[in-house]
Amino acid sequence: MRLSPRVATLLAVAALPLALTACSSGSSGNGGAASSDKAVAAKAKDPNAGLPTGTQLKKALAPASAFPVGLTLEAAGSTDTGGTFLSASGESTAKPDCTKLEATSWIQVSGYKGGVSFAQNDYANKDKTQEVAQEIDTFQGTTAAAVMKKLRTVATECATFTDTDAHAKVKLAGKSTAGLGDEGYSMTLTSATWENGTSLIATRAGNSVITVLSTAGGDNGAASAKKVTTAVLAALKK
């Protein structure tokens, strides 16, 4: 599994408050009432109002106890947006890059870079032969539902593809999964050259999409992926 933490995006966001401060430092007050009215109007139109921040989503990630014995947290794969919201990304109309299904942040295969807030981490055994990754992305408006719809389309478009490591033929089987959030979809990746397959589960809970990847277990990671997904969904309800 390839790691795809969105660190570069977070660095750009971290620099934004400093830039805004520099731009506003030379401005002079033209009336407290006018400024107050603008602030109220901006708040009323805020598309992120009521959405959880990355800090809040991080707390909803499944705990270590939800992962198979022998897997430990990978520090390099842990990141979140903190208390800052990212700019909403539009949908790419390009043909999906099916190899993104092999990596963390595989939600990006949908054509969306991710939510306005997110949190992710992953766990692996010592020799990296078994890994489980989890991510929560929160979107504005109805985008979360659009992402789920696109993932179903991707399952068809990526029915077969060539992996990036062994250049082996990979087969993908997808199906709707009942009982997981507002809607759920599962995909299984298998190859004749792999020792074990990969299970991917995407579920929606309101404006959030949870994506889990697992190669842990002789069942192509299915049981461990579902256990982590269930733990995240339970945490988001609290």
Descriptive account of the structure:
It is a single chain. This protein is α+β, with helices and mostly antiparallel strands and 238 residues long. 29% of the residues lie in helices and 23% in strands. The chain is built from 5 helices and 9 strands. Strands 1, 2, 3, 4, 5, 6, 7, 8 and 9 form a 9-stranded antiparallel sheet that branches. Strand 7 (183-190) and strand 8 (198-205) form a beta hairpin. The protein is globular. It starts with 6 loop residues before the first helix and ends with a helix. Residues 1-22 form the signal peptide. Keywords: Signal.
Keywords:
5 helices; 238 residues; 23% strand
In short:
The protein is an alpha+beta fold and 238 residues long.
Largest sheet: 9 strands, antiparallel
Percent of residues in β-strands: 15-25%
Residue-averaged pLDDT: 88
Percent helix: 25-40%
Order of helices and strands: HHHEEEEHEEEEEH
Work out the helix count: 5
Quaternary organisation of the protein chains:
single chain
Structure class = alpha+beta
Total beta strand runs: 9
Computed over alpha carbons, the radius of gyration is: 20 Å
Amino-to-carboxy terminus distance: 31 Å
Low-confidence stretches: 11-28
Global geometry:
globular
Set out the fold topology.
Layout (H helix, E strand, L loop, with lengths): L6 H18 L7 H13 L9 H7 L11 E2 L5 E2 L36 E8 L6 E8 L4 H15 L2 E3 L6 E8 L6 E8 L7 E8 L2 E7 L7 H16 L1
Antiparallel strand pairs: 1-3, 2-3, 3-4, 4-9, 5-6, 6-7, 7-8, 8-9
